[in-house]
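Local shape tokens:
==================
===
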Amino acid sequence: MVAAVLAGLSLLSLLTCGYLAWGSRRGGAGEAPGNLLGEEPAAGAPRSQPHIIFILADDQGFRDVGYHGSEIRTPTLDKLAAEGVKLENYYVQPMCTPSRSQLITGKYQIHTGLQHSIIRPTQPNCLPLDNVTLPQKLKEVGYSTHMVGKWHLGFYRRECMPTQRGFDSFFGSLLGSGDYYTHFKCDSPGICGYDLYENDNAAWDHDNGIYSTQMYTQKVQQILASHNPRKPIFLYIAYQAVHSPLQAPGRYFEHYRSINNINRRRYAAMLACLDEAINNVTLALRKYGYYENSIIIYSSDNGGQPMAGGSNWPLRGSKGTYWEGGIRAVGFVHSPLLKNKGSVCKELVHITDWFPTLITLAEGQIDEDIQLDGYDVWETISEGRRSPRVDILHNIDPIYTKAKNGSWAAGYGIWNTAIQSAIRVNHWKLLTGNPGYSDWVPPQAFSNAGPNRWHNERVSWSAGKTVWLFNITADPYERVDLSARHPEVVKQLLRRLSLFNKTAVPVRYPPKDPRSNPKLNGGVWGPWFKEDEKKKKSDKSKGANKQKKGKNKKKAN
């Protein structure tokens, strides 16, 4: 019966394509004279392998793009999306590290051990070294790989650094946030350090007080100018914006003086600067001969944080939650190689899908022993075909704060509903445990000078509730809980959760290591775990064991 219900409802998931005409083929303001959109310099025909430019914004809310109705102007994003394919059923993870780990490995968090929270600066933790990464696979087929921006996948030992995980070069920050001008970050009182790197060393020479969004864009332009466009390049641009702290150059406030809420006003200025930066990146792609053979992918890493100016309206919840506002993201693909340009894709796409999709486009091979959770969705995006994906495990976090009233009984003996988890199967979405902040935050909430929750819409839950079921296709705003009406569907999804959980690896979330203090590392956040020391200790212990064995043999003789 459940299978029939799911199969019947899956017929509702139709690809919607609305074709748009942009008219002009010219680039934006600031483009060099005579450099028309798509014009290539006489440098020879590009290779069949496309140039891949992946742009990841930080904490951009679902509503915070012009084509989603925002009051914040994003002409570059609007134009690129209108000429490409908008992804309107696109999902990421609710926080920084999880989304980045899934992008770079093609695996769910439960399969890398990073299913809880984020990697903290003082934790001896990083993306497990036995995971093959996207840049490593692209290097195998001749790509030059470069990363600019925020890493946030751990750095406690040198082997965890971006240049050791497949990138030919790295320029950016290792932590999750920091000052946009000084690049300093305090994790706690007295635990502060510098966080700007070029490859494996602190980039003191680049510390010129330049706003990070602009500085990263300049670095991207330098990379494109020095690379041969006849050779494929993978450029991963992970901007710090629009993550807190809320900082922006003064001139970007010009159009947003009327926004009374100071956080929203600063956020708007930051996003305006980011939009301009992406325009400059696309101009550089055209100027240096990459554009005609390029694929530009734009994505936010998670939902917006209303208390820090972001808006996910009309979606429910925010960053850090498994409501749609935390995991449904702004995303699009722009490329001359797309077949259905100017369309809207409403097929299911997840951030893990970029790993197999991009490797296949790059003419690479995916090893059979790599157990991926992502799917190749290029034909879905480019040609409008059905997505091979029918489900998404949003996450299972066994050590998140347990819901007080959760129990095995509430989960029909199939699942302990005290555990925080979320899963999507076709049109159905199930949440258990404590899903997080659940308000709807409308635009009016940003109308006052300070935070105002009186405008927020809230739902009073009945005591002991730890299971929610929604038909996301019919109810994308999660307003009607169907768990009581469809217990058989709840059971079916709980069984899927249980099956996924059997494949989970242990959680990696170690305690703080006092050796991580930047004061012990020249005032810089960076690798502190010394492999040599560990080897010396193990060698000493081995030597001691050998001596003991020798003495025991003599005694025996």
Remarks:
- DSSP finds eleven helices and 18 strands in the chain.
- The radius of gyration is 24 Å.
- The first helix runs from residue 2 to 10.
- Residues 258 and 396 are 42 Å apart (CA to CA).
